[in-house]
Write a structure and sequence with these properties.
With 634 residues, the protein is an all-beta fold. The chain is 1% helix and 62% strand. It has two helices and 35 strands. The strands form five sheets. The chain has a 22-stranded antiparallel beta barrel. Strands 1-2-3 form a three-stranded antiparallel β-sheet. It is globular, with a radius of gyration of 25 Å.
Length: 634
């Protein structure tokens, strides 16, 4: 699906699930996500099950074999991750398959982005026990927005060994993402209304705005079968990234689109290290089967940040945006060319779980617990001294329990309860404690549902309730955990091939994201910023029989309106977009060749797609975009 939809980044993949909403970063180019209405930072996605490894902010799909979405609080599975109360996204690296492969690809994306890629894998040894997989990508050019340019350079190497009892792998990679003159967002914090969106291809940014994000990352994993029933596992991973950029969002002042540019220069260096180890196995006591797991996982992260800032001083207009002068910096914090460490976090925990099977495993009961510890430290940008007001430590046992009942092979009913303990979000640049972590949040989730799989078609229906401490800016302009957000929702997923040659993948989410506790109760009963009450996605494919190998594709998504401020006085309109495409599979010299052509946002809809959680920036959806690609296997 990643290849057939010509998905470039993880956001292009997870949009196929209505429970996942794509949101741009906090005034920059970062991809973040809302799963069941709660944010997951792109940096906190796991890689092969390990947190703290993925490249910063934007990840190209050329490096990824599979994208997995875990919905709901998931501390038992991904306990060391630092965000993701509503869910988690895991990325699996590419490894060599039993059949040797070598694939070259060429692609074009409007208005003039051209790229090339190589993907090659082969196994060696008497039993194919050694594997090597190599991926290389380079793509650059103008985007569909006027005057915007992007470039991606990436490479990865995957080595693995499959023995009788020992299995190991080593994955290393490099990625550099460059954005120049690309539009970021529009600052509407000073308005009591939402301005009309600009023309779909109009660029509200400036050619001097840029971001360069470079990352190196790696992971080593091993499993060893101690007996036929017990396996030891372990993994370590690390990531180093460097982001440097000059960001500017127009702050709109009236309905005509008049605005002013300020600037924010950021130099940020991230270093993260993570690991896990444990033993899993199975045994039987009487008529009850057991699948147990005991493990430990941890992730540490150190951040070095310095910034320079210039207040809004340059006039512009979001509907008629000429090239302007660069605003002058008036404030700075830290040594911009050699930043000091400004923050450290450590999340670690032990887990123990047992899944008990009754009546030939038609009833499965899981009981587990994780002892989680979270440590947060913040330091002054200029002196390196610790900020004792932002010193947080917390630890606790968090239970997880659930039951699955399978009255028939095709149907499973389930119910569960789980909890999570994680660092709170960082304060926005409009708060007095900008960049500081707000504390430690303890969230809880309850869920019930049913899943069905009839081979040709399948689906799921779930109802959930998630409660999480909520950060709000108080009367002293300090962003702190002084409230609670409760998200209740219903999810419906349907997928399969009801008629031979006709495939469907659809989902819908209805969500009530409500503030239940706030400072002095002023926001109680209000809806959370940026969370639509409903979201629908439907994708379809049809094989055109008269032409062997020809397939037509379509994708439509519809989002309800989203509030853009905490008081619920302004909102983004609902929107609907349509994508259409076609692909053709054929043979050239007895080797597979696939042509793919797609048009995203066929109607060139102009719309505000999302608002970040603080309600400061709103983001415009992508314009009509043509994508053409060719891959050849040999």
């Amino acid at each position: 699906m990643i290849q057939d939809q010509q998905a470039k980044t993880i956001a292009d993949v997870v949009r196929n699930d209505a429970s996942v909403q794509n949101v741009q970063g906090y005034g920059n180019y970062a991809e973040t996500y809302r799963i069941r209405g709660f944010e997951l930072d792109g940096d906190d996605m796991t890689y092969g099950g390990l947190p703290g490894v993925v490249p910063r902010q934007v990840i190209d799909t050329q490096l990824i074999d599979r994208v997995e979405v875990f919905k709901g609080a998931n501390s038992l599975v991904n306990g060391a991750a630092t965000s993701g109360v509503g869910g988690m996204i895991n990325l699996e690296p590419k490894h060599a398959e039993d059949t040797p492969m070598a694939r070259v690809g060429l692609d074009y994306t409007s208005s003039s982005q051209v790229g090339g890629s190589v993907d090659a894998g082969r196994r060696f040894g008497d039993n194919n026990q050694f594997g090597v997989r190599v991926n290389v990508l380079d793509c650059e050019g103008d985007t569909a927005e006027h005057g915007a340019k992007r470039r991606t350079t990436a490479a990865s190497l995957g080595l693995d060994y499959r023995g009788d009892r020992l299995r190991t792998s080593l994955d290393v990679g490099y990625q550099k993402q460059t954005f120049h003159g690309d539009r970021i967002g529009v600052n509407v914090s000073g308005l009591d209304f939402i301005p009309a969106p600009t023309a779909a291809t109009h660029n509200t940014s400036q050619p001097w705005v840029y971001s360069d994000i470079e990352s190196e990352f790696g992971m080593a994993k091993a499993e060893y079968d101690l007996t036929d029933s017990w396996t030891w596992y372990g993994a370590v991973g690390a990531q180093h990234s460097h982001e440097i950029g000059l960001y500017a969002s127009p702050a709109v002042s009236d309905a005509s689109g008049d605005a002013k540019y300020g600037r924010l220069d950021t130099n940020r260096i991230n270093d993260a290290f993570s690991g896990m180890t444990g033993i899993r196995g199975n045994f039987t006591t009487g008529f009850v089967t057991h699948k147990v797991n005991f493990g430990y996982s941890a992730v540490t992260q150190a951040v070095k940040t310095a910034w320079r800032y210039g207040a809004g001083s340059v006039d512009t207009n979001i509907y008629n945006t000429p090239t302007t002068a660069v605003p002058v910096n008036t404030l700075s914090s830290g040594d911009y060319h050699d930043p000091l460490t400004t923050g450290r976090t450590r999340t670690q925990g032990y887990l123990l779980s047992d899944t008990l099977g009754f009546f030939d495993d038609t009833v499965l009961f899981t009981a587990g617990a994780r002892h989680q510890k979270v440590v947060v430290r913040s330091y002054d940008n200029n002196t390196g001294a610790e900020d004792t007001d932002s010193r947080f430590d917390a630890s606790r046992w968090m239970p997880t329990y659930g039951v699955v009942y399978k009255p028939w092979k095709e149907v499973s009913f389930y119910a569960n309860h789980t909890e999570a303990l994680q660092p709170g979000s960082a304060a926005p640049n409009t708060a007095a404690n900008y960049g500081k972590t707000t504390g430690i949040a303890h969230s809880k989730q309850n869920e019930v549902g049913v899943k069905v799989d009839f081979d040709r078609v399948g689906g799921a229906l779930s109802l959930f309730d998630i409660r999480k401490p909520n950060a709000i800016t108080n009367s002293d302009n300090v962003y702190a955990l002084n409230g609670e957000q409760r998200n209740r929702g219903v999810e419906l997923n349907l997928f399969g091939e009801p008629v031979l040659g006709f495939r469907l993948n659809g989902s819908a989410t209805w969500l009530d994201a409500q503030i239940t506790e706030s400072a002095n109760g002023t926001l109680n009963g209000k809806q959370a910023i940026g969370v639509p009450r409903y979201y629908f996605v439907l994708g379809a494919e049809y094989d055109i029989k008269p032409v062997e190998g020809l397939t037509a594709t379509a994708y439509v998504n519809h989002s309800g309106s989203q509030y853009a401020d905490a008081q619920n006085t302004k909102s983004l309109d609902s929107y609907t977009t349509l994508d259409l495409g076609v692909r053709y599979r054929t043979k050239l010299n007895d080797h597979d060749m696939v042509w793919r052509v797609g048009v995203d946002n066929v109607t060139n809809e102009k719309y505000w797609s999302s608002v970040e959680s603080y309600g400061t920036y709103i983001y415009q959806g992508d314009p009509r975009t043509l994508k053409v690609s060719m891959s050849y296997d040999f």
